[in-house]
Design the sequence.
């Protein structure tokens, strides 16, 4: 670069050095020639005039010619003047000393149109050369100045730029080093947290497992309450540990999402069902609403979506003292600026959020956050936001203090299969179903009306017993079904022959009246339960013309979701049927986990044999087991290798039998699913082991547990 700058500066300097004197000389030369031409033209005209006046002047008036030639310019410029005849013979001459080089101009002289001679004027170019020399010196000075400027200034700027580049390179290297160190530090912290949470989860799993087993044993009400509180506290601590673990994995970019098809309504119903006990304990109404044109299937990660919705609903319940929590799912059509997608929204009637709380809402809590604040609601919201971003959406919030909060996000969907209206069959007389919803909770009643309309049922709503009685007292009301909360009671005469569905929320749970009319429905209800209740009520009742009210004996009640008071644990189905208890081999390296697993399995009526590692498990295979529970993380031979060895051993037996292998892991199922499948395992149970989840898994593989 420096050589290029020097070369360019030198070329410019040489050009200036040559062009300046050359230009000066050329301009001066042109000026001299112009003056000579004008002067010689004037003299030629003068001689022509004189000859025309005196034709013999050319031969006899030499002194007259000399007089004309002696005339000089007023500036005193030295010249040489000559007059020649037509043959070129010199007739007269008037010269001054001229320095070479010179320049001359010649023109003919005429007599009556005939050339009789020539006049020549000559001047020296020495002044032009002297001026060109001076111009050369000035050009040299100017060229040197320009060369220095063009070379030194860019080089100085170049060196400054090079220094900046070097400084930037050093700064970049330091940043890269800091980034590598931070990344490595984050990786070490992530693995440390993963290891730490794993170490915490092991004894915590023992606590939860033992409390699960303890709750199946006979005990007093006070003891059961204390055991349940201990179990709930352990479950809350486990949630904190899981949040810490997942947040660290998200920070280290170790969480992946899958894309598979699923029914969004079933997923929402599952979340509502899971969170209902928590809402009931807080005295809140929890329900959901489905918007029109929702896809029957959507593509995404149902596990992560369920986790996000669970976090949002749980957070809403946690910070809502009274009122309701509503989960809405709806279809958003594509626009010019946005693609189509499924919109999820969780709205509560809690205390709301200040602008300050909203600003720090989705980040991990710090020691400076208030101890009790929606913005310090643990890691759940921070995890939810990152999971939504991984799924292609953005989690947002709208809230005002004292007016509740609304959390929402949209997951884009490239294509959608729109659900057609699932219209229910009409009444026998061809009239469509027309339901009257009686619920004092207006928000819940409105959501139920929306769901009934989606099923093709006409619907109206009332919100107190007086309004219900007033409507039913009308002689020709249009209703075929009444969905009434149990607290809004009417007598049989007022009910008439209407299809009656009694709804029970948390306040009436366990207080169902066996003598009540028609069907019963627990709130919040699933879509299939609602359909079954409507059709069941229609099947129970006699056909009645619309508007006809007659006294009739009430139909026998049929429960869609029967609710019974807690019963003491019953004997296992296998024991009740007199069958042999299923034998289970539990392969677990941790002694506490062995004790927990044994207690849970024995509470289900299983005969349990334990092994501390894979080698011991292989030695016990000849005993024959109905199912093998296999921990994946064991010293020596891990669970994957043990599973492959078990399958290899089974293939060598005279009567091959495939024993169900169920993996036990503290990792996410999605992270180990593929390896478990390739190792020949049949199912996966996550740690800490939950009694209900373990029972459900074993019942899929051990017919003895479900045999009657």
Sequence:
């Amino acid at each position: 670069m420096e050589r290029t700058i020097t070369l360019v500066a030198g070329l410019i300097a040489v050009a200036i050095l040559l062009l300046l004197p050359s230009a000066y000389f050329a301009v001066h030369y042109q000026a001299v020639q112009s003056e000579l031409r004008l002067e010689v033209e004037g003299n030629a005209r003068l001689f022509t005039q004189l000859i025309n006046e005196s034709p013999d002047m050319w031969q006899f008036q030499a002194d007259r010619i000399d007089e004309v030639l002696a005339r000089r310019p007023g500036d005193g410029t030295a010249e040489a003047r000559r007059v020649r005849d037509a043959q070129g013979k010199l007739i007269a001459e008037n010269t001054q000393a001229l320095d070479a080089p010179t320049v001359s101009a010649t023109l003919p002289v005429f007599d009556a149109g005939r050339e009789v001679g020539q006049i020549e004027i000559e001047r020296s170019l020495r002044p032009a050369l002297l001026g060109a020399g001076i111009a050369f010196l000035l050009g040299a000075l100017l060229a040197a100045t320009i060369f220095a400027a063009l070379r030194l200034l860019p080089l100085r700027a170049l060196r400054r730029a090079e220094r900046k580049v070097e400084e930037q390179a050093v700064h970049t290297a330091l940043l890269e080093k800091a980034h590598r160190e931070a990344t490595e530090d984050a990786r070490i912290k992530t693995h440390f947290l993963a290891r730490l949470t794993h170490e915490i989860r092991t004894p915590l799993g023992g606590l939860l497992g033992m409390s699960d087993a303890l709750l199946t044993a006979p005990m007093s009400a006070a003891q059961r309450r204390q055991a349940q509180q201990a179990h709930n506290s352990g479950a809350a601590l486990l949630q904190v540990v899981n949040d810490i673990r997942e947040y660290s994995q998200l920070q280290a970019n170790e969480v992946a999402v899958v894309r598979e098809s699923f029914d969004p309504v079933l997923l929402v119903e599952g979340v509502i069902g899971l969170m209902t006990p928590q809402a009931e304990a807080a005295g809140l109404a929890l329900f959901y609403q489905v918007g029109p044109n929702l896809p029957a299937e959507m593509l995404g990660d149902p596990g992560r979506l369920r986790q996000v919705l669970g976090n949002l609903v749980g957070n809403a319940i946690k910070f809502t003292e009274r009122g309701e929590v509503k989960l809405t799912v709806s279809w958003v059509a594509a626009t010019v600026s946005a693609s189509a997608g499924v919109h999820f929204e969780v709205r509560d009637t809690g205390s709301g959020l200040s602008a300050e709380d909203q600003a720090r809402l989705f980040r991990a809590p710090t020691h400076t956050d208030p101890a009790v604040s929606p913005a310090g609601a643990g890691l759940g919201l921070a995890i939810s936001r990152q999971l939504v971003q991984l799924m292609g959406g953005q989690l947002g919030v709208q809230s005002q203090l004292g007016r509740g909060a609304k959390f929402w996000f949209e997951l884009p969907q490239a294509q959608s299969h729109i659900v057609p209206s699932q219209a229910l069959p009409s009444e026998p007389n061809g009239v469509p179903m027309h339901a009257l919803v009686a619920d004092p909770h207006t928000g819940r009643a409105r959501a139920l009306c929306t769901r009934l309309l989606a099923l093709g049922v006409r619907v109206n709503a009332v919100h107190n017993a007086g309004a219900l009685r007033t409507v039913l007292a009308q002689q020709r009301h249009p209703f075929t079904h009444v969905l009434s909360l149990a607290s809004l009671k009417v007598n049989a005469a007022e009910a008439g022959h209407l299809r009656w569905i009694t709804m029970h929320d948390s306040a009436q749970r366990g207080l169902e009246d066996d003598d009540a009319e028609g069907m019963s429905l627990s709130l919040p209800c699933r879509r299939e339960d609602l359909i079954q209740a409507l059709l069941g009520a229609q099947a129970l009742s006699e056909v009645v013309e619309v508007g006809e009210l007659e006294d009739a004996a009430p139909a026998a009640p049929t429960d869609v979701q029967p609710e019974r008071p807690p019963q003491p644990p019953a004997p296992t189905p296998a024991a009740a049927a007199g069958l042999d208890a299923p034998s289970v081999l539990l392969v677990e390296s941790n002694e506490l986990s062995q004790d927990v697993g044994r207690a849970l399995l024995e509470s289900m009526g299983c005969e349990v044999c334990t092994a501390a590692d894979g080698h011991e498990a292989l030695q016990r295979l000849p005993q024959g087991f109905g199912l093998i529970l296999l921990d994946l993380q064991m010293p020596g031979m891990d669970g994957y290798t043990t599973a492959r060895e078990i399958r290899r051993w089974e293939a060598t037996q005279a009567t091959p039998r495939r024993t169900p292998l169920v993996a036990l892991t503290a990792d996410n199922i999605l992270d180990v699913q593929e390896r478990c499948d390739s190792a020949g395992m049949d199912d996966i149970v996550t740690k800490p082991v939950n009694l209900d989840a373990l029972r459900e898994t074993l019942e899929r593989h051990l017919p003895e547990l479900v045999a009657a």
